[in-house]
Amino acid sequence: MNSASKIRRKVVPVSAADGVDSADKQEQLLLSSAICNNEDVGPFIRKAFASGKPDRLLLHLRNFARSKESEIEEVCKAHYQDFILAVDDLRSLLSDVDSLKSSLHRSNSTVQSVAFPLLNSLDGFLEARNISVNINLALRSVHSCIKLLELCSRANLHLSEKKFYMALKCVNAIEGGFLDKVPSLTMKKMLETKIPEVRSFIERKMGKEFGDWLVDIRMVSRNIGQLAIGQASAARQRDEDLRSKQRHAEEQSRLSLRDCVYALREEEDDDVLGEAGGSVENGVLGFDLTPLYRAYHIHQTLGLEDRFKQYYFENRKLQLTSDFQVSSMTPFLESHQTFFAQIAGFFIVEDGIMRTSGGLISKLDVENLWETAVSKMCSVLEDQFSRMQTASHLLLIKDYVSLLGVTLRRYGYPVDTLLDVLSKHRDKYHELLLFDCGKHIAEALAADKYEQLVMKKEYEYSMNVLSFQLQTSDFIPAFPYVAPFSSTVPDCCRIVRSFIEDSVSFMSYGGQIDFYDVVKQYLDRLLSEVLNGALLKIINTSLHGVPQARLVAANMAVFKRACDFFFLHAAQLSGIPPRMVERSRRQFPLKKAQDAAENMLSGLLKKQADSFMILIENVNWMADEPTQSGNDYVNEVIMYLESLVSNAQQILPLPVLKRVLQEVLCHISEKIVVTLYGDSVKRFNVNAIMGLDVDIRLLESFADNQGSLFSDEEASQLKSSLSEVKQMINLLLSNHPENFLNPVIRERSYNALDHRKVVMISEKFRDTSERLFSTFGTRGSKQNPRKKSLDILIKRLKDAN
User: Fold this and answer.
1) Taking the CA of residue 489 as centre, how many other CA atoms within 13 Å lie in the half-sphere pointing to its CB?
2) Rounded Cα–Cα distance for residues 75 and 71 (Å)
3) Is the pLDDT reported for residue 124 higher than 50?
């Protein structure tokens, strides 16, 4: 402390230095700030040497050092007393350490004197423990030999009882736990020889058992497939029954016959297919898979898992390949169920094994086998379908294949490729079906006796009328009931309905959900081509007489109602709401046959009318006075028309009857006009025309009398059928016939007349004063104004032509 006080010196502050200019002060302040902030002073050094004034930098540094010496001195003054106290504490601590050292020495001497007898006892204990260890080792060796002999005895017992897995467990226990620890060399050699023999024996036994299982599973697979497909068929039938009930309920509701409510009832599917997806205790579909699992488990225990997997896969693949063989001795129609059931059973078994065997066969291997099977089945179907020429055969096979698809889809197998093959042969099936239906329709038409169908019982009415919605009233008629159609109608309806059901059956469950358009397309072809063509052939070749033609025309009207039922039935079977079909009305597909039937009926009626129109030759065309009651021919014609209406209205619909009457009346009108300009009439006078006017009025009166059958508008349309002869008579009786030349009048009053006919008929018109052998004295008489106007009309029409 004295030395410190001696070296203390007074520090003069930098600010007191004399002769330092303001620049030096500024530089010194910057240097001091940099050093206090631990910044780099390199720039200051470089600047000093660059300016050639390092002495000034050194002076600044010294001045900074002097300013810090005073701070150091203040710190030392502040901590001087604490340092003295710390030195005193160290001296007192040194004396305590010396006393502790003495105490430890005394304690050590005491412990050594006490522990010496204990060390002698410990040596005796260690010797006794070594003896005990040797005895225990001997006992363990004896116990190990006893356990080894027990395991060998147990292994022999398991082998004799064919409990091979337990025997392997014993062998593995011997090999893993005792083989390296056997104290007897002879026993060890014996074990090393017998253990491989035991394993080889177990492997042979399990190989034989697995081979027997392969034979059994192939025999049972067919039954498994048939049972599974049968259950799918039963489930499909239940669905069809429920849909049928639902359609019936919808139909009853739509027709508002009675209140019917059907609820779809869900049934538990107790089929064995559910068991396949369940536990394996009962095996796939009740078949025991225990031999397979035991063989696989034992091979796993033997360390031969991969080899057994390969052996299993190769054998099952060979079995599948042999299942693909199609016998050429048996028709495929008879053997297809066995063929597909065998394949279905194979893959049902494989699915169960894949899911429950713990890796015996992988999903990829099963998928590869399935792809091979699908390819082969598609090839077989293509080949067999190309040979078949019967629609029902294709339908049978298609139904079974679709059931196969439904069955295997439940197990996760993709069947779209298989269903595509069925869809590819859709056109061929329908062509064959159209051909078959064409033959049946031709047979039904040929068997028709062209008599009204008589139904004596209600079930006959239900079968022939209600089942096709041919009724015109909701009331059940009295029996016996004479239908307004022949047996052809219900027979053809049954054929068409069968076609619809077969078509829907082929299109259903084939991978295509919305197939109504396809069914409708082929139904259109059946009606417009097959049925229409067959009806046209019958109409053009086999109809003789008005009764037959009338009945066929009535049949066509009934067929029109039946066609609505056909498309509605097709929609219902296809799952399309009836309201959608009712909104999309279509043209009557049998329109050509209907027109042909009506034309045939009209033609026959015209021929019969011609037989009465022959009487027009008896008309006195130069009568002295007009007839008041009509000519004979028109009375005969009217009686014929009245009998025609009386008979036809019982079976012909009123629109058809109206069209036929129009045709007949139009023909009568044409016949009268033809007679007027024909060669049979050389001349006529106004009295004859007035008689024709009476005839036409009688015919118009007949049309008016049909008001009980037709509306006023329809009766007016009947009268308009006589417009040609009516306008011709009006023209001849007109006071100014030349008005025909006026386009407005001609369009209003004579639009049905032909110019040439008007000229030819007008030239034959003679005044009542004219006679065939008139005297020269009458030639100078004044000409009739009507005749004069008519001559002007004739001249102008000839000039125009």
Assistant:
1) 33
2) 6
3) yes
Element (H, E) at 644: helix 632-648
- Give the span between the Cα atoms of 119 and 512, in whole angstroms: 99
* Residues 410, 412, 413, 418, CA torsion sign: positive
Rounded (5°) CA angle 538-543-544: 165
Cis peptide before 196 (omega within 30 of 0): no
Q: Using one digit for the tens of pLDDT, what is the confidence trace for 6-18?
A: 334 333 444 444 4
Q: How far apart are CA 48 and CA 752, in angstroms?
A: 136
Buried/exposed 344-381: b ≥16 CB within 10 Å, e otherwise: bbbbbbbbbbbbbbeebbeeebbeebbeebbebbbebb
Burial 165-204 (b: 16+ CB within 10 A, else e): eebbbbbbebeeebeeebeeeebeeebeeebeebbeebbe
Cα–Cα distance for residue pair 250/227, rounded to 1 Å: 35
Look up residue 482 and give its two tokens: 């004479």
Residue with tokens 């042979």: 204
HSE-CB of 554 using CA atoms within 13 angstroms: 22
Q: Collect all residues with Cβ–Cβ distance below 8 Å to 756 and sequence separation of at least 6.
A: 801
The phi and psi torsions of 623 (rounded to 5 degrees) equal -65, 150
Helix and strand totals (H; E) in the chain: 29, 4
DSSP state, 611?
H
pLDDT at 248 over 70: no
Fill in the DSSP letter of residue 527: I
**Which structure tokens are listed for 767?**
């005044």
The model's pTM:
0.66
3-class state of residue 719 by DSSP: helix
One-letter identity of residue 317: K
Q: What angle do CA 328, 332, 336 make, to 5 degrees?
A: 125
Tally the C-alpha atoms within 13 A of residue 702's C-alpha that lie toward its C-beta: 28
| Alpha-helical regions (H) of 324-470 | 332-356, 363-387, 391-409, 416-424, 426-446, 458-464
